[in-house]
Amino acid sequence: MHRNHDVTLDQAFYREHGERFHGQHLEDSHHCIKLVTESPSVVLLRHEPALIRLTRADGPNTVFKIFGSPYSQSPGNWAFGYESNDAAALWAQIPIDTDIVVTHTPPQSHCDQKPNGMFVGCVALRSALSLIRPHLAVCGHVHEGRGYERVHWRGKLINTEIETETGPESDSVDHVTRGVLPPMGSKKQSLVDLTGKRDKRLDNEGFSYPGPRQHDLTETQPVSVTVSPGPESSAGISEKASPRNSPSAHPSLGAGSLGPNSCGFGYALQTLRMETCIVNAAVVSTSWPHQGGKRFNSPIVVDLELPVWQDHAVANG
């Protein structure tokens, strides 16, 4: 997934503003994008969903729907920016049955606080997450906001519209638990346990792939990619998923599916989705101009239970 500093990967932006960054030594934006998209070890998400199946024979055989977006708002002129009046339409494109949401920008009031105390995340994204209630929402961008929060939702859906005005926490939130990670420089792993092994299990049973409690919520349709790591790569894309062995997704839940046509399914899914873990995984701990030099955080590891897809014949083939 791109970010606002990846100026060569935003073709329209680079055509207009490339000289400001690289003077007369401009890069070939199309070639830069191909370097990423043609890599067999990368699933690049450019404001789009993908349904991933892990098919390695000795792997977990898990399946999940992920949505990734490079968009963020920043002071100044940077790649993959958007205006506030476009925010609701932008984040309404996240499918409502998404399991994991990865965005460069954080949602407002969650892992987005600057040293001056201001919360600078996106209000519309916060509102969209309150409707989708994914298992995991990963962000960055606000370096000082690194860490994680467990957001506990109210049982009843209060509002089905994405809000764009800055205000107090959404009425959909019951309470928020801020997690604690080892301090910078610690040799301990920065682990977020959502399985119940070390910390309380995530209260979220609503998956895009039907689990034991939601077979009546879903129907079969084709999906995106299969990930089958080989001995030489960590996450190579081996094939497109076929309709025969595709994990299920409700036919009305495509891009922009937060409208009235999906409300019935959304209500049903939300009864199973009572908690979301929001993680700001920023590795660089300081913002530009990095006074005193850049400092770095250790990676955050999230332990999360996911459903297992059933076609083991394909996995073992």
Tags for this entry?
317 residues, alpha/beta, 9-stranded mixed β-sheet, two-stranded parallel sheet, 11 strands, 15% helix, globular, disordered C terminus
Description:
- The structure is a single chain.
- With 317 residues, this protein is α/β, with parallel strands linked by helices.
- It has two domains: 1-38, no CATH class; 43-315, no CATH class.
- Helices cover 15% and strands 18% of the residues.
- It contains six helices and eleven strands.
- The protein has helices spanning 11-22, 29-37, 87-91, 123-132, 263-270, 312-315, and strands at 48-54, 63-69, 100-103, 136-139, 147-153, 173-178, 190-193, 225-227, 237-240, 275-280, 300-303.
- The strands form two sheets. It has a nine-stranded mixed sheet with strand order 6-5-10-4-3-2-1-8-9, with no helix packed on it. It has a two-stranded parallel ribbon with strand order 7-11.
- The longest helix is centred in the N-terminal third of the chain and has 12 residues, at 11-22.
